[in-house]
Request: fold
Amino acid sequence: MLDKILWVYKITWKTSPFLLTYGTETVIPVEIECSSYRVLHFSSENNDKKLMANLIKSEAFRHRVIELAKLRSNLEQDQDEMHARGP
Reply:
């Protein structure tokens, strides 16, 4: 029984399901130095432009959220005052 357990341990140690199915280990693109489309077409200048555009959009969105929060706070204060006065 111990022989079978050791044999199973020996063949399954560091064995992937891919290896058991296809008889070969997987090779990820980094190992064969195959770049992705995104890496091949990367442009630092274009990336900087897009980052700046996203930053500007983020800032505009942040200002809009702050404005809406102030409006909501004012609305809640007005409603509280109306309820405090009663009908």
